[in-house]
Amino acid sequence: MYRNKYRIESARLPYWDYRSNGAYFLTICTHDRINRFGTIENGNIILSGIGVIAEICWHDIPIHVKGVRLAEYVVMPNHIHGILILNNPAETLNAVETLHATSLHTHETSFSMSQNEKMSIISPKPDSISTIIRSFKSAVSKHAHRLGYEFQWQTRFHDHIIRDTTEYERISLYIQTNPQNWKDDCHFVLDCEQ
């Protein structure tokens, strides 16, 4: 009855394995792009309590996910820009994963298997960019709410697979200079809902 009626199409590149080794430029926005993480003063970010939580949780990502290295990042008043570098061993990428939804008994119908196989294909994989960001967002929200802060994220995030050294350097510079350019970019035009 609800087949594909309420499903939002993924903004991720359809044939890319987001566990693949490489550099990923990520942008994660607060709900309605409300300035929750701090303010910009004289071209520098002054973090709020939630901003400090977000920065700490960002630094904790490699503790929770093997094969992830943090590169350039910045916490801005209403978003975070960061580059995550995945460097997973080849055997991790080729491993067969058993998720609870796909661990079915043989007595189930082929329709059920087909539905569960489809869900397995479209579900975020362990240690993928999607699961890393989902865990990061969850940790920030949990700590913010525990401390009594009103806080919410945009539902999705924006990602870009960095393809070469020139692009990496350009994006790194963009991240580094983002606080200085805040007055020109304070409405932040990149659509994090994509």
Walk me through this protein's architecture.
The structure is a single chain. The protein is α+β, with helices and mostly antiparallel strands and 194 residues long. It has 2 domains: 117 residues, Alpha-Beta Plaits, CATH 3.30.70.1290; 29 residues. The strands form 2 sheets. The chain has a 4-stranded antiparallel sheet with strand order 4-5-1-6, with helices on both faces. A hairpin with a 3-residue loop joins strand 4 and strand 5. Helix 1 crosses helix 4. It is globular and about 45 Å long. The two termini are 26 Å apart.
CATH topology of the largest domain: Alpha-Beta Plaits
Query: Class by helix and strand content?
Result: alpha+beta
Shape: globular
Q: Based on DSSP secondary structure assignment, what is the total number of beta strands? A: 6
Number of helices: 6
- Relevant CATH superfamily of the largest domain: Transposase IS200-like
What is the count of structural domains?
2
Which strand order do you get reading across the main beta sheet?
A: 4-5-1-6
Radius of gyration (CA) equals 19 Å
| CATH class descriptor name of the largest domain | Alpha Beta
Which consecutive residue ranges, at least 5 long each, have pLDDT under 50? 6-10, 93-111
**pLDDT average, as an integer?**
80
Proportion of residues in helical segments: 25-40%
* Sequence of secondary-structure elements: EEEHEEHHHEHH
